[in-house]
Amino acid sequence: MLHHIRIIEQAALKIESAARGYGITGIQEFVDRLDAAEEEAVMGTAQLRKLTIDNPLQQENVHQLATLIEERIAYSNLLVKTRDEKGLVDVAALSALGRGMHLTDTIHALSEQMIQLEEDLLSARKESNDKSIDHLNFFSVRHPGSCFFY
Known about the structure:
Number of strands: 0
Strand content: under 5%
Order of helices and strands: HHHHH
CATH architecture: Up-down Bundle
Mean pLDDT: 90
Largest sheet: none
Number of domains: 1
Low-confidence stretches: none
Number of helices: 5
CATH class: Mainly Alpha
Structural class: mainly alpha
Shape: elongated
């Protein structure tokens, strides 16, 4: 799960970078990169939905993350369209509003929150497993040679 969150976060950065690159240069290669990064982000959120099916809190976070990714994609596509239809000056003015940076920062913050929740869950599971092992070790020392069949 942690891997998929990082992939989505990296894809959001690639989306921002590719849209900015196209806005500044008008070079088609940046649009190709944008398309690839958009696909990575969408596929990543689909994977996260599957991986968090048993965790309602993370499912809500994935829903919020998917919504932010959709907004980031729409904004980047707006930058591309503005560059194509109105030129560099207008795309610079649109970029100066900071909406893209805000979306990317919000995606980063939510990703970090999701990672922390997942790490806390993993830590709690490890602690529970360690206690179970300690209990089994204690039992085997007190009752050597005992076997139980169910």
